[in-house]
Amino acid sequence: MSEAAETARLMDGVYRRQRHFYDLTRKYYLLGRDLLIDELQPPAGGTVLELGCGTGRNLIAAARRYPQARFYGLDISRQMLDTAQTNIDKAGLTDRIVLVEGDAANPAATDPLGVPAFDRVFYSYTLSMIPIWREALAAGTNRLKDTGRIHVVDFGQQARLPGWFRTLLFAWLKSFHVTPRAELEAELQSLAGKTGTELKVRNLYRGYAQYAELRKAVTGPCS
Domain Methyltransferase, which positions (predicted)? Predict the structure, then answer.
């Protein structure tokens, strides 16, 4: 079995039951997701891709916030995509949000969408769940327009929180196959150097979460 197939099997097993109450519980500890949506600000007629879209919660919120854009979601779990499609249909956004099943680390996984490149690509608490997360980040840059941006929010390293809290949280997350990436900022810095982009990083809630943005450096006329 390939690594992607094994990951799909694992995620389907994890979320087969959880998907029915996922959004109700996650809103209390997946912090910073709405900040990411606020920062997306796609251009009129723009395209936005979420890699690891889960139940579609972020796509629905973003589509409501930016009615002038089109949204696309990819997830490796068929179980989560079924729930996402149901939620999107209920929200009346079927004409503006399109889903595809695939591996976020495979740049060709979005080919069936028929969109050659996206204005925004974002990851919301996804990289901590993807075993080959560096490859998933690199694949996101390959799906991005030259003028596009990458947005990331995920667990931080709890640097300004009590040690006991970090220990308990990380142990609990591990039971859900979630691993906060201590090397995330360094990997983003490496990507910024390779792609000629500017990196901005914010630690949220005393290091509980981390928000990052990769964008082309803005250069103005010489003064």
Answer: 48-148
Tokens of 69: 């854009």
User: Whole-angstrom Cα distance, residue 8 to residue 14?
Assistant: 10
DSSP-assigned states of every residue in 167-221:
HHHHHHHHTTT----TTHHHHHHHHHHHHTEEEEEEEETTTTEEEEEEEEPP---
The pLDDT value given to residue 176: 84
Distance CA 188, CA 113 (A): 26
- Sheet of 97-101, strands arranged across: 97-101, 70-75, 47-51, 118-124, 144-155, 209-216, 197-204
Q: For the chain, what are the domain ranges? A: 3-216
Whole-model pTM: value is 0.85
- 3-class secondary structure, 77: coil
SS3 content of the chain, % helix, strand, coil (to 5): 40, 25, 35
Q: What are phi and psi of 38, to 5 degrees?
A: -60, -35
Task: List, in order, residues 6 or more apart from 54 with CB less than 8 Å away.
Answer: 22, 75, 77, 80, 84
What's the token pair of residue 155?
Answer: 């667990």
SS3 at position 151: strand
**Four-CA torsion 51, 53, 58, 60, nearest 10 degrees:** 120
Cα dihedral 75, 139, 172, 6 in deg (nearest 10) = 60
The architecture (CATH level 2) of 3-216 comes to 3-Layer(aba) Sandwich (3.40)
